[in-house]
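Many introductory courses stop at the sequence. We go one step further.
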Amino acid sequence: MRPVFTIVCIAVLSAMPAAAKLPPPVERVEVRDGNVFVNGEPFFLVGTSHVAHYHFSLPEASEMGFNAVVTHGYREDPQTFRMDIDDAYANGLYSLVSLSNGIWKDLELVEQIILACRDAPGLLVWELEDEPNTRLAGPEGTPHVDLPYRIPPEDFGPVYELIKRLDPDHPVWLNLALGYEKDHRAYRDVADIHSDDVYPVPDYPLTHVAQNSDAVVAGAAGEPGWMYIQMSMQTQDYVRAPNMQEVRCMTYMAIAHGIVGVIHFAYHAADWWPRESEPAYYAQFLDLTAELRGLAPYFLAKPEPAAIEAEIVEGNAAPSNFGYTALHLSLRKAERGYLLIAVNGFDSPVTAHIQVPVEGIAPRAAVRSEYRLVDVVDGVIEDTFAPYAVHLYDLPFSAPDDFDRREVSWPQWQRRPRP
């Protein structure tokens, strides 16, 4: 039996993720210009949750390409918060450290947690309570938006001030629900980073993500906005998880509306785990997270101010939920050109003429991750979108007419010394 046992062990170990590459240790996290900066470099969050602590999934989250996770600890032991951070970092992941479930109320305990964790190389941000703006009951007939908060903003004042005093190098993040701009403005004084969540699949239109993202960006009023994006079953009966077309649509819809970091929620729900339940879906995340991290410089660039116009020439051109038409568009500029993010938020196909309001670009665009080119004729792209399709148009600058390769000063040109 020994040879069989050896073969089984080798097979199991071969299937385990390799040791993760550690990211740079966090020395300082700053919030400025609407972005998050880690050690002075802009950082685009590609996160997930329900993987650390008793979820036992940190190696898988790392293998899937996430760069940060929500971590926790046991209320009775502040050192467990540090252990979770260190475990995540050992797997190549930064930590969004949660003080939820009322832990934030105990200022003495919070102080112990901060002192245990503030020098951890993987600590990214502190989270207060989750969804504190859910509503309490009120007088009959009161509009939902005007009902009292479960935890009003002023309750967070003491813990926010404590965190800022003891650990000025790590910002405070607060996640709300419901997609009310009013709420994000109300909590702005007790958060440095804002986010919202909505899990529409399979019951509601995906455009809920656009509406909530707009609320975050407008309510944060210049502070960074993140968004929880559904990846697992979240309805009461756990009908189904979104497919990758829906996940990618929701992710890029949020980015097109100004979101600068995403957290895919949640790595597991009830007995659903992607590696066991949907191994092919698990593999698809490798492509999505690699794409997000590779294009992060575009996502962190400010949207170009010029309006992007799209004419729907085939398919539904009428506004739908929340007044959005089919296409959600955003143009970003980086060092070598532009990226046009185009997302079909409808569950039906459309064909569109998209006017690109910039000059000096090449006559063809590369559609990233699709390995195809499209013509740009008089500044217009014509393309067809399947339901929930995302097209990422890479629009490089045209080479100047007088371009001379011999005269170019290549910043990364390497040449061995010559006598």
